[in-house]
Amino acid sequence: MPALEQDIFRDQRTRCDHTPAWVALQAHFEATGRHFDVRGAFAADPARYRAFSQEAPHVFADLSRNRIDHATEALLLDLARQCGLEQQRQAMWMGEPINTTEQRAVLHHLLRQPVPPLGGADAAPFIAQAGRDVHRTLQAMLSYADSVRQDARITDIVSIGIGGSGLGPSMAVTALEEHWQAGQRVHFVSNVDGMELGSLLRRLRPESTLFLIASKTFTTAETMVNAHAARDWFLAHGGSTDTNADLPLARHFVALSTNVDAARGFGITTTFGFWDWVGGRFSLWSAIGLPIAIAVGSKMFQQLLAGAHAMDEHFYTAPLEHNLPVRLGLLDIWYRNFHGFSSRCIAPYSHGLRRLSAYLQQLEMESNGKGVDWRGQALPYATSPVVWGEPGTNGQHAFFQMIHQGKDIIPVEFIVLRQGGRDLPEQHSRLVANALAQAQALMLGRDSACGHRHFSGNRPSTVLLLERLNATSLGALLALYEHRVFVSGSLWGINSFDQWGVELGKQLASNLEPRLASGDAQGLDGATAGLLRRLRSGQQQPCEPLP
Ligand SMILES: O=P(O)(O)OC[C@H]1O[C@H](O)[C@H](O)[C@@H](O)[C@@H]1O
């Protein structure tokens, strides 16, 4: 896009709190929203469940237990239109550089487009070319995945990667564990704490291990430290950098990265690449998903892509008022900026989805945890809530106490499967009953003269219902969350696709690491200097008495 057009595109946007709809929402909140009672709304409207439920591909959503009515949704939709949500969505589709701080397009949806058409009939040449590149890489990666699955010599696949290069694949592989290949194990290593890799290496043999070094940049410190430790271990146990040796590094180490040169410098000759228009936390659909394809096979990986593509079509084509990512994203704005709710609990009633909250923490909080708008100007309103959770029913016996009776209102997202997995299927109805009961208890509450037994009720929740957990429904669910994050980020006027907030800590860590060895505390703040001295003293000592 020419520079001038870009500027127009950026400057035409109206910040959400400067729109008439925002003012109207404030008035609506004061008039009825603040004291809205979901129980009363159900009593007044027998059709409420139907009106506030939404079909989307592979996901059905019941939004009826939320503190919204038709007027709220209408005003939120006005807000979306006045903030230019549809134009933003179109800009993403057209490959415009909506990641403005890095001047990058955001095209992860292209990774799951079937052929043809590549990028759509009206695709710009750059998108059509990107689509061709995607399919070439996908085919190479999938045939490699299937060849690994057929290789009886390989028993262990170790994927080393952190953040977006670890959370998505490990969550998806966990979710699809019923479909793992017998006789092969897929492990994930992220932490620079040597305990993670060290304890794994003790159980492995180099000749039967394949290492996947997953890093978009191939520079991330933790991943590089672990990759080098794995390489040292491999070479110390009979491996060789000679490609003609019996145990060549080039056959047992593969890279998943945009930085082919750095991977080559490491000694890797096979790299499955991707592109700068794929953000790390949106990358499980790319070569970063190779561990998924190895774990469940190429066919199932394509089902994952197909599920996500179905959700993409819904997001890009459904009218805003019947568009599930839009409705959820708008609800997030309503709760965060008008009700002031500061967190949202993810409660998947599915053991397979036990890593979903960890994955969503990065997706949502790294995308939308920003304090400035797309021009870098400070925002006067709150953005991303804290996203957290644990699978049900475990959470019920841990923190649900607070959700039922605590002083904070925490909207809960129940994820429920109509059909359970293959193991102990007779327990599934108990699991589902618990999810429904929690949502019911949160909404209905219970009056009691005894304060300890009183439940105030009117506590909001959403139910996302999947037929069953498989690659297709998982793909759709994850794409739903991706688009929802786009919707709320777009309305907040922030760049959801950069992550400058992680840089400072990285720089300070590289400054401190040599100081831990040298003891040089010069120029450090008092707390860091004190801890550095204590860490180097070799023993826990009481604090010095104050003068
Ligand atoms: O894939 P990599 O380049 O190794 O990056 C891994 C992760 O680290 C960074 O610090 C970012 O916070 C993440 O967005 C990214 O996913």
Automatic annotation (TrEMBL):
It is an enzyme of class 5 (isomerase). It comes from the Bacteria. Belongs to the GPI family. GO terms for molecular function: glucose-6-phosphate isomerase activity. SUPFAM superfamilies: SIS domain. The active site is at residues 366, 397, 506. The keyword Glycoprotein does not apply. It comes from Giesbergeria sinuosa. It holds the Pfam family PGI. Pathway: Carbohydrate degradation; glycolysis; D-glyceraldehyde 3-phosphate and glycerone phosphate from D-glucose: step 2/4; Carbohydrate biosynthesis; gluconeogenesis. Keywords: Cytoplasm, Gluconeogenesis, Glycolysis, Isomerase. It is found in: Cytoplasm. NCBIfam families: PRK00179.1. Catalyzes the reversible isomerization of glucose-6-phosphate to fructose-6-phosphate. Its EC number is 5.3.1.9. This is Glucose-6-phosphate isomerase. It catalyses: alpha-D-glucose 6-phosphate = beta-D-fructose 6-phosphate.
